[in-house]
């Protein structure tokens, strides 16, 4: 599982044209700009950019040492009070960061100018064309953003055990930049990068295997996007391709799908996504369960879901090494079982 932590809500899977269309239609873009502004690195003063980059490097060094305590001491109060996500992310990525080099991309400086938290803050950074984003632009969207100055900086981490990106949200407090968000993500999965998954997705699309294509496009987006609250021209294009193959019979965008197993028992699928485990890429399916306390029965349900899924979508055999079924109880707890694809009869 990818672990990451950000104290503020954000909008997942954002796409620029979806953001701009209603704003332009209502003529409110200029009003929004007064409340939310963005500076690229080239427009910052040298001391400002240097202070952001130095803070990011310092927080990376703490991460590489596994020093969650120091990260917490240097966090904004809201994050420090709910720090378990950062601790988990640091622990998961320490081996990848230890001995690695972190190269900072040019940062962005976001200003939320308001008297109270913004229900939806949209920052349009860089130059945009008539159809939306350009190669040099970026969009950031946050829900419930308190007023203040924030920096977004992405570190490309290489030379360690595995490649990673580390995206940090920093909030200015006086002369200091405090940690407000922490997103560490791998740049490869099962030995391949995002571009490889996008190419494979296009191959599956050509063969009309849209379920495989849709899942592989999702993996490509995850590997190529440093964080869910950020949109670029590249992620917009991948989003378009993903939408073009989205199957109606798989759960997506909060919609659930019923899956019928042998014996006419029906399970409500709530989510499905790829998951890399070592050199293997599995597909994970989550489904609603009234009770998971009887693990023997839940295991049997998981096996039934796995077999029903592959029976309904046999193309999955070609694209994935195994299937993981996770029964999710009403309280959010789950119980999972895995079956290699070769053992699914």
Largest sheet report? 7 strands, antiparallel
Instruction: State the helical fraction.
Output: 25-40%
Please trace the helix and strand order, writing H or E for each element: EEHHEHHHHEEEEEEEEEHHEHEEEHHEE
Number of helices: 11
Task: State the oligomer.
Answer: single chain
SSE order and pairing:
Blueprint lengths: L3 E3 L2 E2 L5 H11 L2 H7 E5 L5 H19 L3 H6 L3 H4 L3 H14 L3 E4 L3 E5 L5 E8 L12 E8 L2 E11 L5 E10 L2 E11 L1 E2 L2 E2 H13 L3 H15 L5 E2 L1 H12 L12 E5 L3 E13 L2 E9 L6 H18 L3 H4 L2 E7 L5 E7 L5
Parallel strand pairs: 16-17
Antiparallel strand pairs: 1-10, 2-7, 3-5, 4-8, 5-8, 6-7, 7-13, 8-9, 9-10, 11-12, 14-15, 15-16, 17-18
Helix pairs in contact: 3-6, 7-8, 8-9
Offer a few descriptive terms.
33% strand; seven-stranded antiparallel sheet; 18 strands; single chain; alpha+beta; 345 residues; five-stranded mixed sheet; 3 domains
Describe the fold and architecture:
- The chain has 345 residues and is an alpha+beta fold.
- Helix content is 36%, strand content 33%.
- It has helices at 16-26, 29-35, 46-64, 68-73, 77-80, 84-97, 194-206, 210-224, 233-244, 295-312, 316-319; strands at 4-6, 9-10, 36-40, 101-104, 108-112, 118-125, 138-145, 148-158, 164-173, 176-186, 188-189, 192-193, 230-231, 257-261, 265-277, 280-288, 322-328, 334-340.
- Strands 1, 3, 4, 5, 8, 9 and 10 form a 7-stranded antiparallel beta sheet that branches. It has a 5-stranded mixed beta sheet with strand order 14-15-16-17-18. Strands 2, 6, 7 and 13 form a 4-stranded antiparallel beta sheet that branches.
- Helix 3 (46-64) packs across helix 6, helix 7 runs antiparallel to helix 8 and helix 8 (210-224) runs antiparallel to helix 9 (233-244).
């Amino acid at each position: 599982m990818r672990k990451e932590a950000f104290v503020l809500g954000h909008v997942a899977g954002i796409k620029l044209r979806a953001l701009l269309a209603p704003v332009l239609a209502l003529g409110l873009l200029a009003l929004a700009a007064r409340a939310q502004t963005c500076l690229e690195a080239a427009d910052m003063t040298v001391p400002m950019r240097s202070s952001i980059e130095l803070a990011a490097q310092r927080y990376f060094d703490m991460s590489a040492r596994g020093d969650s305590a120091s990260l917490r001491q240097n966090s904004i109060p809201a994050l420090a009070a709910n720090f378990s996500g950062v601790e988990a992310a640091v622990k998961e990525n320490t081996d990848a960061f230890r001995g690695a080099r972190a190269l900072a991309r040019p940062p962005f400086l976001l200003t939320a100018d308001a008297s109270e938290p913004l229900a939806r803050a949209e920052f349009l950074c860089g130059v945009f064309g008539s159809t939306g984003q350009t190669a040099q632009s970026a969009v950031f969207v946050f829900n419930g953003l308190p007023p203040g100055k924030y920096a977004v900086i992405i570190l490309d981490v290489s030379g360690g055990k595995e490649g990673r990106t580390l995206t940090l949200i920093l909030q200015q407090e006086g002369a200091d930049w405090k940690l407000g968000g922490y997103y560490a993500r791998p740049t490869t999965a099962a030995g391949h990068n995002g571009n490889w998954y996008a190419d494979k997705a296009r191959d599956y699309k050509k063969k009309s295997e849209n379920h495989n294509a849709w899942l592989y496009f999702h993996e490509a987006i995850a590997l190529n996007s440093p964080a869910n609250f950020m949109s670029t021209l590249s992620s917009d294009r991948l989003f378009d391709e993903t939408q073009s193959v989205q199957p109606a019979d798989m759960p997506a965008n909060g919609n659930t799908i019923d899956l019928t197993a042998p014996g006419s028992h029906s399970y409500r699928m709530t989510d499905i996504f790829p998951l890399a485990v070592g050199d293997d890429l599995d597909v994970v399916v989550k489904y609603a369960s009234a009770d998971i306390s009887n693990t023997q029965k839940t295991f049997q349900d998981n096996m039934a879901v796995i077999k029903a899924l592959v029976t309904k979508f046999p193309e999955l055999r070609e694209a994935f090494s195994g299937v993981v079924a996770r029964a999710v109880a009403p309280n959010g707890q789950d119980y999972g079982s895995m079956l290699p694809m070769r053992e699914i009869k």
